[in-house]
């Protein structure tokens, strides 16, 4: 029997090592070996532009002018976005921007407020 930990997402037993991470071939979830050893991995890890860990309900500040696709609107630098929600994918923040509405942002363009 393997001494590798089970997948924290699907509890799959067929995990394998890939450099400094564990990978589950059943669901595709990847997690850090350091987090697995410390027992602190709770799934989705999202970092802002400064490397601070974000969590659901945090407030963030936009650090770059962002054009809104399909519109002539722009989310300006310094716009504060409250009550974010972390999601899987390329645009990993789901939020509501005042004056624009619901949208998804990339965490690399925000910093924790």
Key attributes of the depicted protein:
113 residues, mainly beta, N-terminal domain of TfIIb, SH3 type barrels, 2 domains, 3-stranded antiparallel sheet, 1 helix, 13 strands, 33% strand, elongated
Structure description:
This protein is mostly beta strands. The chain folds into 2 domains: about 1-40, N-terminal domain of TfIIb (Single Sheet); about 60-110, SH3 type barrels (Roll), CATH 2.30.30.40. The protein contains 1 helix and 13 strands. It has one helix at about 35-40; strands spanning about 15-20, 20-25, 30, 45, 55, 60, 65, 75, 80, 85, 95, 100-105, 110. It has a 3-stranded antiparallel beta sheet with strand order 1-2-3. The protein has a 3-stranded antiparallel beta sheet with strand order 9-6-13, with no helix packed on it. The mean pLDDT is about 85. It comes from Parahaliea maris. InterPro entries: YjdM, YjdM_C, YjdM_N. Belongs to the YjdM family.
CATH level 4 superfamily of the largest domain? SH3 Domains
Strand portion, in percent?
25-35%
Give the biggest sheet: 3 strands, antiparallel
**SSE pattern:** EEEHEEEEEEEEEE
| Tally of alpha and pi helices | 1
Given this structure, which CATH class of the largest domain is correct? Mainly Beta
Radius of gyration: 17 Å
- SS content category: mainly beta
Q: What's the shape?
A: elongated
Enumerate the strands of the largest sheet in spatial order, edge to edge or round the barrel. 1-2-3
Average pLDDT score: 87
Pfam families: YjdM (PF03831), Zn_Ribbon_YjdM (PF08274)
Protein name: Alkylphosphonate utilization protein
InterPro entries: YjdM, YjdM_C, YjdM_N
Family: Belongs to the YjdM family.
């Amino acid at each position: 029997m393997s001494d590798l930990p089970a997948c924290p997402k699907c509890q799959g037993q067929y995990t394998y090592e890939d450099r400094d991470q564990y990978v589950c071939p059943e669901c595709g979830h990847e997690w850090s070996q350091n987090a697995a050893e410390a027992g602190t991995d709770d799934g989705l890890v999202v970092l802002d532009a400064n490397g601070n860990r974000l969590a659901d309900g945090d407030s963030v500040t936009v650090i770059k002018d962002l054009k809104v696709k399909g519109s002539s609107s722009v989310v300006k630098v310094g716009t504060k976005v409250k009550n974010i929600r972390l999601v899987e994918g390329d645009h990993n923040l789901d939020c509501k921007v005042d004056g624009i509405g619901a949208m998804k942002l990339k965490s690399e363009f925000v910093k924790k407020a």
